[in-house]
Amino acid sequence: MKESKKYSQVLKKFIKKMKSEISVPQIEQENEIDIVVWAGIYEIVPFQDAPTIYSTLQSHFVDWNDLRVSRHEEIKDVLGSRCLESKLLGENIKSALNAIFDKYDCLSLEMLLEKGKREASRELDTLTGMSKYIIDFFMLTAMGAQHLPMSKRMFDYVKFAGLVYPGSKESEIKGFLERQIPVSELYSLYCYIKAAADQADIEDIEAHAEESNKAKTAKKKTPSKSKKSSAKAGSAAKKTVKSAAETKTAKKKTAKKTATKKSAAKKTATKKTTAKKTAPKAKSAKKKTAAKKK
């Protein structure tokens, strides 16, 4: 990411400020599937609403497999007014649980805990239906890997708050943030960014994101004009080269014709000279013959 040294200092100030303002929430979990459910909730709702939603789902359904096979309408009815985005949240959790079940034919990720971090990460990436946020959350909390979960709102917030270089890609932002602190403190950074994003005015964040997208679009259009101009210039240059080549060829043909004509004229002149030389010899021979007769 551009100007990483500058934004590294900005991030340090942000972390110092957030440390004094919020306490890092701890997740209650008995197994690795609990972590997946927490991640599915955190991706959609603010920190303060997550514990209530988790306990409501846990108390209503027999187990997480019961939640996996439930209808979206049932989840919506269970959560009621506790979650305005209950449909999206239900889809997010169910999709992740189904991805696990389809892959391993059971609702467990215990087998991944015995593997290396890279191998586990690669395997999770193959699960169709599990979001990148849930994968990174699992890798960070269950595997202790250098993975920072980032939702769309969190990405928009760090741009809005000036914590990263404007116009940076999401992959650049994520890579920059992950490199700034040791893995032991990465969960705290995640909590600070999410908490700040949850508290920020969503309308301000969305307005800033829209302006940034417009600026990017305008920037993309400008080079395209330059490319067209370059293409036109290139085409004109090609035509000039082609015209020069054609002129050169025409000159060569003209020169060749002239040379052929000169050669033909030279041959004609040579024949005439030869004829002149032959004529006197003939006259001399006639004179000698006449003298002999006398």
From TrEMBL:
UniProt xrefs under Gene3D superfamilies: Hypothetical protein, domain 2
BP GO annotations: DNA repair
Molecular function, one GO term: catalytic activity
Comp. bias intervals (Low complexity): 231-247
Biased composition (Basic residues): 216-230, 250-294
Annotated region described as Disordered, given as residue ranges: 210-294
Full protein name: Uncharacterized protein
